[in-house]
Amino acid sequence: MGKKAYSQRRLISTSAVYLSIFLVFLALSAAVLITGLNRGIPVVTQPEAERPVSYPTDTPGLATDAREPVPALQERPGHRGTLVFILDDAGHNTWQLEPFLSLPFPVSIAVLPRLSHTRTAAAMTLAAGKELMLHQPMEAIGGLDPGPGAVYLAMEDHEIRLTIRENLAQLPGVVGINNHMGSKATADERIMTIVLDEARRAGVYFVDSLSIAESVVHSMALSMNLRTWERTVFLDNTPDRTSIMKYVSEGTKIAEKRGYAIMIGHVWSAELAQTLSDLYPQLVEQGFSLSTISRIMMDGDDDEDFGN
Predict the structure, then answer these.
(1) Helix, strand, or coil here: 268?
(2) Which pLDDT tens digit goes with each residue over 7-24?
(3) CB–CB of 173/124 below 8 Å?
(4) Which of the four CATH numbers 3.40.50.300, 3.20.20.370, 3.20.20.70, 3.40.50.2300 does domain 81-299 have?
(5) Over 70: is that where the pLDDT of 57 sits?
(6) Distance set, CA 236 to CA 181, 243, 270 (Å)
(7) I want to staple 155 with a disulfide (CB 3.0 to 4.6 A). Which of 4, 159, 233, 256 is the partner?
(8) What single string gives the DSSP state of each residue in 112-151?
(9) What is the CB neighbour count within 10 angstroms for residue 155?
(10) Where are the domains of the chain?
């Protein structure tokens, strides 16, 4: 009995030791856990996500808010005038016309009637978003042939009207007329009264190409209470790049004084399209806008400075 009692006491003592160790370990673990929670530190840690960098509000060149607008570029100079470019003699082919349809600004294309490519040139012009005009052939001094669909002094009134109407009908979407040649016809009051009346009936404007100083278009238009327009500068009387740039410069000077300038060139002019394309950014930077007659008429119906 003494030996058995001794073994039991030893077992109890050993168990007590292990129990004490376990309880101490448990207490230490609980203490660590409680301490960690109180300090806000998770027991199992993971890599902290990268935080966005914030710049101080006075850091030069940096926006403090993504919604803050980017500062505007330096404003261009004030408006100095409006430039209108009309390109005559379209309708003979398409390859001469194509470079002008690619210009990155408004232009007007004046198409000759009754030619092999008249309708095609008109359709291409409208498809490119350019303004379409009838380049109306008219009798010239010296017997020069103005081409098919021309108006002659020997015509009766009804013949003139029928000719103009048939020519306009070949160009759906046409908004204006200017004369091809016409140094003799535009100096005749009867002829121009009929032509201007047909333009008014059709709802299109008329631009006098001023092929002769004795033109009566302006005086006839005044008597009819009709607004018309006049060519300011020919761009390619000498069709080289240097001369074209000089003519454009002359047009800008007139536009500054008058408010606008109408400059006429021709689709057959080999260097004209590229020269105008090269000049375009410079003209805009100088404060000139590029437009068409119909846009000017819509924007300035009450402006006496526009038109005759």
Answers:
(1) coil
(2) 455 545 555 555 555 565
(3) no
(4) 3.20.20.370
(5) no
(6) 15, 7, 10
(7) 159
(8) PSSSTTHHHHHHHHHHTT-EEEEEEEE--TTS----TT-B
(9) 18
(10) 81-299
